[in-house]
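Re: duplicated header lines in exported structure tokens

Our pipeline writes sequence and tokens for each protein into one text file. With two proteins the header for the second block appears twice in some exports. Here is an export where it did not happen, for reference. First protein block:
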Amino acid sequence: MRFNERAHTYDQHAAPQRRFAEALAAFAPFPRGAEITELGAGTGFLTNALLVQGASVEATDNSPSMVELGRQNAPLADWKVRDAFTKIPKAKALASSGLLHWAPDPVAVLRNWHDAMPDEGRLLLGVPCDPCLFELRDLMGEGPLHWRDEDQWLKLLESAKFDVRAHGVLESQEIYPSSIDLFRALHGSGVTGSPRMSPTTLKSLIKDYDRLHPKSGGVVATWAWLLVDAVAL
């Protein structure tokens, strides 16, 4: 993925990610004064939503460019460059949106997060889940990700010794003027890797998407986010 490279265009193209991050914060608010470590904070969507609740936020991301922009967008947070997929420092509570699905081994990552928390420490988690972008995946395959549905994610959390207190899937249908605009949005937000298709293949994909998924005003893409409020056992 190319988040560091695309940090300067992320906000412009990541409207769904912003809405889901804000919805996650509203789903299970933290009490005023809570001390939270945010993992994969990006440019600060969830960060700002937590700050509005009166929380104290240490915002971390593996991308230096994202952290630099995050400091501008959410200056009240304490920003640090940190890889959330390795061992992390002790934290009273953790929050993360749009990160864990990128982990090669999410159970190992969840166990590291669990080990960093006290008993009954809260984890507020948002993660894309099936049927997210199923229209595109039906045409292209899964790509670099292994997509999981709600039940599969909940089982992973259970195996990492988290007790899920509340959960739900939030879906939205985004309308793009054309499939080209959808691809540009994904590219601009950094969620695509190096080009893997020939121009001929890409042209065919665009044509098929426009034909199969028309919607008034353009084409449709389904986004889905699992929202989880859990505690460490």
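Second protein block, exported in the same file:
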Amino acid sequence: MPPTPPEPRAAALAPAFTAAPDLTAAFSTTSTPAPAPAAVPSGQRRPINPFLANDPNQKARRLARALVSDMVAYHPSRREEGLQAGTLKQLFRDEIKKSYEEYVEQVGREFAESTAHFQEALNDVLAGGRKIF
């Protein structure tokens, strides 16, 4: 008796892929509905991405926090030392000055001096919530 030829690979695998899983339960609409978005004043569109918002205060806050966060990221041990010894202002004097100059360059001197966004970022991020600056 001659040997039987092997089964083709595709035919052997086909039965495993013929039935698709039932995903209707995963996409069911019977779950609780999403909360309604906050109201937007008439005549204004909600920005798709909040990072692209045209609110100068929001942009300035975000910039200030980013600049101060960089100080913390590059000098974590100096920050800890300054928090413990109460010398944060002295230890970060040069970095604060340089970051503030960058902040003023990007938001404008008048805006920077009329808001407390940079000072708030220093207190929140660098000083860990303490009112040092």
